[in-house]
Amino acid sequence: MSTRNLFILSLIAIIAVYLYVFGQDKTIQMIIDEYLLIIGLLFVSIAYGFFKFKLKGHPIMRFTQNNLSLKTTIVFFLLFQVIDYIAEDGFIGMISQWLLYWIMGLIALLLIETINYYKNYQVIYKK
């Protein structure tokens, strides 16, 4: 399964859980409350789209980056879930952070890809 499909399915699951636990009004309010991160995600997406468009038709090299394994990512997620469970007063507070984690994960993924495209852009156009 591709990363893109994983992010889409996880967003659907998060919204479904939010609607079930919090109801429609609170879910919409929780999404609106993350407007700064959504704006940041928009800017990173625009930069990603720009470099992807500029490099269309060129071979893309994968520069080595410190990629975390899936196991490490899951351990971090579980650790943060335990911390949120304690800090946010239980299960409801813990799941209220899921959208924040989802947006931050998407920003991190797009930022890593944008940096890779930027490095390719430098190699191709700075000859």
Supply database-style keywords.
127 residues; mainly alpha; 6 helices; Putative membrane protein
Task: Give the arrangement of secondary structure elements.
Layout: H1 3-22, H2 24-33, H3 35-54, H4 70-87, H5 91-95, H6 98-125
Note down, in words, how this protein is organized.
The protein has helices spanning 3-22, 24-33, 35-54, 70-87, 91-95, 98-125. The chain is built from 6 helices and no strands. It has one domain. Helix content is 80%, strand content 0%. The protein is elongated. The chain is mainly alpha-helical and 127 residues long.
Low-confidence stretches: none
Could you give the distance between the termini? 37 Å
Instruction: State the share of residues found in helices, binned by percent.
Output: over 70%
Tell me the number of structural domains: 1
Contiguous helical run count: 6
H/E series, N to C? HHHHHH
Q: Could you give a short account of the major beta sheet?
A: none
What is the number of strand segments? 0
Structural class call reads mainly alpha
Strand content: under 5%
> Taking all residues together, what is the mean pLDDT?
87
Using only C-alpha atoms, the radius of gyration works out to 17 Å
Protein name: Putative membrane protein
Organism: Malaciobacter pacificus
